[in-house]
Amino acid sequence: MQKERDYSFHVYLRGIILIGFFLLLFKLIVTGNIQSFIAPKMVPFSYFSIAVLLILGVIQIWRSGSKNKEELYCNCGFDHNQNGSPLQSILIYSIFLLPVLTGLLFPITTLDSSVAAKRGIKYGSSLYTQPPEMNTDNSLDTSLAEEYLDNPEEYMADIDKRIESESQDGVEGSEAGNGNADGTSGLGTNQDGSDVRIMTSEDQEKLKNELLHSDKVVVDDDQYLAILNILHENPSLFIGKEIEIVGFVYKEPDFEKDQFVVARFGVSCCIADASVYGIISTIEKQDHIEEDQWVRASGTLTTTTMNDWELPFLQITNIEKIDEPENPYVYEYYTPLS
Q1: pLDDT digits over 206-230, tens only?
Q2: Has this prediction a pTM greater than 0.85?
Q3: What is the domain count for the chain?
Q4: Partner of 203 for a Cys bridge, out of 66, 99, 197, 199, CB 3.0 to 4.6 A?
Q5: Radius of gyration for the chain, computed over Cα atoms and rounded to the nearest angstrom
Q6: In this structure, are residues 299 and 314 in contact, taking their beta carbons and an 8 Å threshold?
Q7: Torsional class of 217: left (φ above 0), alpha (ψ -120 to 50), beta (otherwise)
Q8: Same domain, yes or no, for 74 and 157?
Q9: Which of 84, 105, 126 lies at the terminal end of a domain, its last residue?
């Protein structure tokens, strides 16, 4: 009889732990803090999880109060009684109780430059693990910047002609890319809660053309990684463009004194795979800006070379210190459904 009471208590405690995980997930979803841990495309799975946790928790608590032996035991032929010491049980249950209590009682901490220093920064999208193949036509590479400086209007006119030619080719080949019959490759949830779909190659080509024809490129939260990817794929096309970007200040050890990266953490699936993305920047006669300070920076885009890789380089003309955004993370390639 004593063993049955002991086992009933353990079943009850397991039910409480399951209810605790339910409350933790419920809190994160209601407050919107769930996107500090997982990407928007993973949020629908959390709805299923809280339903399962609630049902299992209620069943366990109900079973613990049953006086019917057949309901308390599963009759699988295995002895479910706790034969270990009380200390062993406390240690095992603490493994499950600790994340519940810390999640419910403590505030959420944002990843910062200390994490960025360990993971390294990606100058471009997650598609790049190595520099892209460099153009071997040195005469073309070295003359682009000089052409812009000599005659900016003629340079931009040539760019427009090139865009029209590339956009026609991109639209013709876009249907061959990955995606569903309606041109989508998956559904997700935007940071404002609206329905979104993952960008197709056609979407990215349209975005590229919009950026090239705009007077000012604003790197917004919803298309942060998509815009950075375009800038890093074609840095020479955007020479002379005005860029505005929001992020935290991160400095590599080998940077010059006036150089830093305006960066954000990009989340693909969950916070464990978060990587740092940003643009190398510089500013003259700057006020003292510490690492992890959030800023809104704007300036003119040029290029620089790092490890034989041509990268966009932002010459900041205006920088403003700001508070950390409500959601400091950015996510992969989402665009509103049309």
Answers
A1: 888 999 998 899 998 888 988 998 8
A2: no
A3: 2
A4: 199
A5: 27
A6: yes
A7: beta
A8: no
A9: 105
